[in-house]
Amino acid sequence: MLLVLSFVTFSSCKKKDKPAPTPSTIEMLTSNGSKTWQIEKLYINDTLFSLNAEQLKYTRTYKSDSTFFDSDGIGGKYVLIENGGKLIETLTTGGSGILTYKVESLTTGNLVLRLTGDGTNILNNQFHFRAK
User: Fold this and answer.
1) C-alpha angle with apex 80: 103 to 30, nearest 5 degrees?
2) Which whole number is the average pLDDT over 88-98?
């Protein structure tokens, strides 16, 4: 009887599954291929800016080949610097120049980027996106 009870007790114990590994920053940004982010909110100088229905359709897509494009027709290459939390975009389509964002938050479902000026703080825009 004791042997049967021991067998039942130990056979009901399940081996615990290992937790899924935490995705890397680039995996959260691109989903290992291509990921589209849709704007939810915009703060200008830390004040919430009211977006209209058309502006709320704005999207950005980041691809794992280090390219990006947005719904306004602007695109180019990007570099994600995990140490230091920066996203640097070099515009090659629909514009030219380099934009540097501080990555304030990045999860699999949300992205918050802050664009500031060249140290003069002329621009202080914080973009809140959700994964589409």
Assistant:
1) 90
2) 95
DSSP the chain: -HHHHHHHHHHTPPPPPPPPPPPPHHHHHHTTSEEEEEEEEEEETTEEE---TTGGG-EEEEETTSEEEETTS-EEEEEEETTTTEEEEEEEESS-EEEEEEEEEE-SSEEEEEEE-SSS-S-EEEEEEEE-
pLDDT computed for residue 8 by the predictor? 46
Mention every residue, 6+ apart, whose C-beta is less than 8 A from residue 19. Answer: none
More confident: 121 or 60: 60
Report the CATH fold assignment for 23-131.
Answer: Lipocalin (2.40.128)
**Segments making up each domain of the chain, as ranges:** 23-131
Tally of CA atoms within 13 A in the half-sphere of 49 that contains its CB: 18
- pTM of the entire predicted model: 0.81
Residue 69: name the closest of 77, 102, 108 by CA.
77
